[in-house]
Amino acid sequence: MRRTKINAKGQVTIPAELRERFGIEKGTRVNWKEERGRLVLTPMTEQFIHACMGILKPAPGEPSAFDELFAERERERKREDLKYELLAGVKSEKAEISVAEICQKGPVAALRGRARRK
């Protein structure tokens, strides 16, 4: 365990041995986080970045995190489209359109089909 002091500006000096071991050079960015009442410093070195590469890579057959985000955004967009169509057209009626119907036809087409049924 190494000891250092915090100076008047709130700065901490990392011992030279640790800087060399972890590849911390002048200008290296670091992240601080609290973990169970302790401060943890993580240097953003090339070594650390290479270790993190591919961490979000999906397993074979699974969608990527980006694909999931895009799919969720598309679902949100369809819900918003439906909401605005309902507000613009059928204010007082209760919307009873299935999610499957909206996903299959799209919100506007689902509303048109609903209006014809009555």
Structure explained in plain terms:
By secondary structure, the chain is mainly alpha-helical. It folds into 2 domains: 1-55, Pemi-like Protein 1, Chain: D (Ribbon); 65-117. It is 48% helix and 10% strand. The protein contains 5 helices and 2 strands. It has helices spanning 16-22, 46-52, 65-89, 99-105, 107-117, and strands at 30-35, 38-43. It is elongated, with a radius of gyration of 27 Å.
What is this structure's SSE topology?
Blueprint: H1 16-22, E1 30-35, E2 38-43, H2 46-52, H3 65-89, H4 99-105, H5 107-117
Antiparallel strand pairs: 1-2
Helix pairs in contact: 4-5
Keywords:
single chain, 118 residues, mainly alpha, Pemi-like Protein 1, Chain: D, 2 domains, 5 helices
According to CATH, what is the class of the largest domain? Answer: Mainly Beta
Class inferred from helices and paired strands: mainly alpha
Spatial separation of the terminal alpha carbons: 77 Å
Strand order of the largest sheet: 1-2
Short summary of the structure?
Helices cover 48% and strands 10% of the residues.
